[in-house]
Amino acid sequence: MPALLSTLLMTLLLLAPDLGARENAVIRVGTSGDYAPFSLALEGDEIVFEGFDIAVARAFAEAHGYELVPKRFRWSNLSQSLEAGRFDIAMSGVTIIPDRSAIGRFSIPVVETGAVVLVREPERHPNLESLNRSTVRIGVNAGGYLERVASARFRKATLLTIPDNAAVLDALSTGNVQAVVSDTAEASLWLGATPGAGQLGPITRDRKAYLVRADRPDLAAQLDRWLLAREADGTLAAVRELYLGASAGPAVATPLTALLAAVDERLSLMPLIAVSKREAGLPLVVPRREAIVLDAAVAAVADAATAAAIAAPPATSLVRAFFRAQIEASKQVQWSALKDPDFVRPDDPPDVGKVLRPALIRIGEKIARLIVALPTGLDPREVRRAASDQLRTPHLTESSQQAIADAIAALSGGATDQ
User: Fold this and answer.
1) Cα(192)–Cα(33) distance, integer angstroms
2) In angstroms, rounded to a whole number, what is the distance separating the alpha carbons of residues 267 and 327?
3) 256-411 adopts what CATH topology?
């Protein structure tokens, strides 16, 4: 493994262009060290971190002249640590979820996974329903995304939240719990260490990305450019294969997939915005605000084109049509969420003006960069299929998906499929 890893990283460094290297600059990378295959701390005379995200972090830092400084975090403190400035970017198998989008800048996705349940005795627990009982103990990492999945899916079961993710596997192996919640990337390793255990699921589809501090737009843009290039030349796929094997999944850091993921990230904030507006007595529809958003979008795309040295950015009318489709979809999601009797409203939603609107602006900047990175002449039918697969926000209708897809196809120069 070390020789193969060294060869692979050298290949990455040789292929990676220098996009504004800054000598002696430091990049502090937050990582958990307890989440193989993304981040694993190897104990010795000093702690050494390894894993998929660590390999990517090293290659990115070397390509841009950064000194890489790892900073360990616990999952329950990830958001607080990022906001406090303990590190510049979290690279540790971080799942894109609205709460994190609200406080930072997610990179484009690098891996797709799904939450799964590992059961100690498959014959006694052949399905998910058999686990949702008060007599069943289910272990899960405390403070992470999977704790939310477990809490929502197994409301009757007894959840055991465990601060150290590595100890979750120990709880299953020793029989302290009957099941644990993991994901497709981690589960293949855990199943190998737990003879006789079985897997249920996946029960979700999730994106892993890197979470940059909100006040580092330069770092976020630099990282996205580098990831797009490394996906295009095949080196990201090689790192996935090395660390994730059969669970590596498809290429996701491509312009179209990344753009749809960014739109989906933006839409995922809409239920929070709807609740926050209702509690503050604000209207859901504000035409003046929509006009401001459209003007800002046009300016952001023009700036992105200038930064990417693109002489002719997409036509203003096409940019406006694309963001108008997002606005209409956003309103549709907000209304649908509020009308849904099963929608779980957050007890303390983030403030629209102070938290959520700045988050939308950050995502909008990423969307603008990805618009100018789109290849020309995309097939509208392919874009529609991709949108159907990638736009996963609950309450989003098929018509809203298709309107966004058609606007993307138009941006790329493809004729809208009737």
Assistant:
1) 20
2) 9
3) Chorismate Mutase Domain, subunit A (1.20.59)
Q: What is the Cα–Cα distance from 272 to 349, expressed in whole angstroms?
A: 6
In 3D, which of 369, 385, 365, 359 has the Cα closest to residue 97?
A: 359
Q: Looking at this protein, which amino acid is placed at residue 75?
A: W
In sequence order, the 6+-apart residues with CB closer than 8 A to the CB of 174 are none
> How do residues 187-234 score in pLDDT, each as one tens digit?
989 998 899 999 999 999 999 999 999 999 999 999 999 999 999 999
Partner residues linked to 212 by β-bridges? 89, 105
Q: For 312, what's the count of Cα atoms within 13 Å in the CB-facing half-sphere?
A: 6
- Residues present in the chain in total: 418
Domain assignments of the chain as residue spans, ordered by start: 2-112+206-252, 115-200, 256-411
Residue 204: how many other CB atoms lie within 10 Å: 18
CA dihedral 60, 63, 67, 68 (to 10 degrees): 20
Q: And the tokens for 261?
A: 């993921």
Topology at the third CATH level for domain 115-200: D-Maltodextrin-Binding Protein; domain 2 (3.40.190)
Distance CA 223, CA 293 (A): 25
Q: What is the pTM of this model?
A: 0.92
User: What is the Cα–Cα distance from 265 to 245, expressed in whole angstroms?
Assistant: 27
CB atoms within 10 A of CB 392: 17
Look at the domain 2-112+206-252 and name its fold: D-Maltodextrin-Binding Protein; domain 2 (3.40.190)
What is the tens place of the pLDDT at every residue in 319-370? 999 999 999 999 999 999 999 998 888 888 999 999 999 999 999 999 999 9
